[in-house]
Design brief:
By secondary structure, the protein is an alpha+beta fold. The chain is built from 25 helices and 13 strands. Strands 7, 8, 9, 10, 11 and 12 form a 6-stranded antiparallel sheet that branches. Strands 2-3-1-5-4 form a 5-stranded antiparallel sheet, sandwiched between helices. Strand 4 and strand 5 form a beta hairpin. Helix 2 packs across helix 9, helix 13 crosses helix 23 and helix 18 runs antiparallel to helix 19. The protein is elongated, with a radius of gyration of 30 Å.
Length: 740
Amino acid sequence: MFDRVAELTVRRPGIVLVVASVLVAAMSVVGVGAFGKLVGGGFDDPDSQSTRASRVIDEKFGGEANLVLLVSSGAQRVTDPEVEQDGAQLVAELRKETELSNVVSYWDTHSDSLLARDGLSAMVLAHVKGDESTREEHAQDIIDAYAGRHEGLTVQAGGGTAVGAELSEQVLQDLLLAEVIAVPVTLLLLLIVFGGVVAALLPLAIGTVAVAGTFAELALLGSVTDVSVFSINLTTALGLGLGIDYALLMISRFREQLALGTSVADAVRTTVHTAGRTVVFSAGTVAVALTALLVFPQYFLRSFAYAGVGVVVIAAVGTLFVMPALLMLLGHRINNGRLPWPKADRHRRRAPFWGRLAGTVMRRPVLISVPVLAVLLLAAAPLLGVTFGTPDERVLPEDAASRQVSTALQADFEGDDEAAIHVVVNGSVGDEALDTYAEKLSLIKGVVRVEAATGTYEQGSSGAPGPTSEALNRPDAQRVTVIGTAPPKSDSAQSLVRVVRDVDAPAGSEEVLVGGGDAELLDTKESIASRLPLAAGLVAVTTFILLFLFTGSIVQPLRALALNMISLAAAIGAMTWIFQDGHLSSVLGFTAQPMDTSMTVLLFCIAFGLSMDYEVFVTSRIKELHDAGESTEAAVVHGLGHTGRIVSAAACLLAVGFFAFATAKVSFMQMFGLGSGLAILIDAIAVRGVLLPAAMRLLGRTAWYAPGPLRRFHRRFGISESAPQAATPTRESEFATRIN
């Protein structure tokens, strides 16, 4: 395959670029539609008990309350006649909105739970219709029409759909700001790393291909399934980052061949056979890590698999075809626009920095690696106290309207009806059995009241007819609402869900489903935790197999997995220290809360895949030199001399794109960006620069061990970077040639 690709790009570079340009133009046209097809949400397991309860409530009872309007009239009490009249008029208008159902307010129920303790504000609850792809859009329409001053009243919108709508809008703003910061910084770093204008512009071509192609993929997938809007962030950051990584590797090898006096055509052939093969294999390891996200039922996580695998594959294909064609047409002009950096001949007698570092580490592997390892383990220590949650209004800045409403509900109202536990009793249940069941629920510690078709139940009181009884009763189902005192998403709120689920079902019921926001959190954590071993196992096994095929050793994959887990633990531990424990919260402007479950899983998969990307970059060159007859020690020193600058430069460039998300106002995007960038730098510098050479020195010849049958299998089916008849640089030329 690589022979055919090399010959095609050498003999027909113009045709390759014309075809690529047409494809990019077509993908761009299709990809523009992605923005209108991607949706928010996707954090819940569609098969969980809470999600099934929500579906039944939507179908049979008009839906749960997912929109809260907090209404006030300045210093006037909402019980004053003129305010009551304005409030009743507001509710009447809301009930005419086709996107709303189950509109309930203080002014038509006079329920104390819907009235603030000081009497200056009241709640209007409603259900916004539609699935997750349309609900936030409908909610935004309602908010635009009613929020602010309305007929003498001040209206603020909160609740799940308001948070979702505001979150989606904020993410798009954060993405735009991050790109405005990252792109010019990346361009400047490209000039510094590549040392020339022409070479610095080539990675942008690969990044453009990757981003345009992935947007087209997401647009097509968005037409047939739910795809999260957050996948845009990964597409742009990873597309440009991998374009830089792969282009840097290809250009470095091409320049190296030209410096040896190789013709342009032969230099392209060797580049495709060596660096091109590494790019394809490296892309495979990253794609495998991201494919593991498909085992999770939440489409939020699955969307990152769609986007991540797409951008990796398209970037690799673009690199394999477009980059050799560009190199063939440019030839020695690849060095045009050279910036006035010190020339390589000034350093002819000095080995590259990363080679010298590797040599120093290998002379004293324990003395140098132990302090580095200790620092990484110290960074990982906060994981011992990590807790997990799901996104809520606290991920938004404090001045966000939906967050302010949530704060007011918790501080000023007796019980947050919007955060209630919703119980669906399927089957025909008699009044006596339902009454007994509701009374049991009302006796649970932490429950303020229970509303059922047979009445309203409070601690220590018998049931009384409730104002919403008709909305709680159907011939084949009953709805029971449990309102507690625990703050939403807290441990005590989740414990209350467990206790409610443990209460014996009423006689005659077919099934009891317990839902609501806290039940969704509980189910999401359990859903992800139950599938996490499978995802981790798939990543570990497939990575082991791929690295074995590349190295022919069973020790190298184990060494790579161990070092990657250490660097990942350090990065995620640091994020726990920052975002869960609250350090740097005043600097970054976020509210400390449990680690976002989905984002932590995503961070792990992204960082693991990119770590393996750099693992392949380095190991491929070490293996090539070892196969050429060098000892393990010499192969590591010379291999890192060749690739150390490439890996460190690529890591810095990729990290810039992720670190730009630190400017976001959504806290889990800050966590993802900082965590990904930190994980990349830890791996590229601490692991590749220190721990890898130390491990190779301590392993010695056993680093390449494999049982006899596996060695024979590898000789037949394994992968090697070395190209047939490819020139091997001398040590002098190696040290003299600029790595970039």
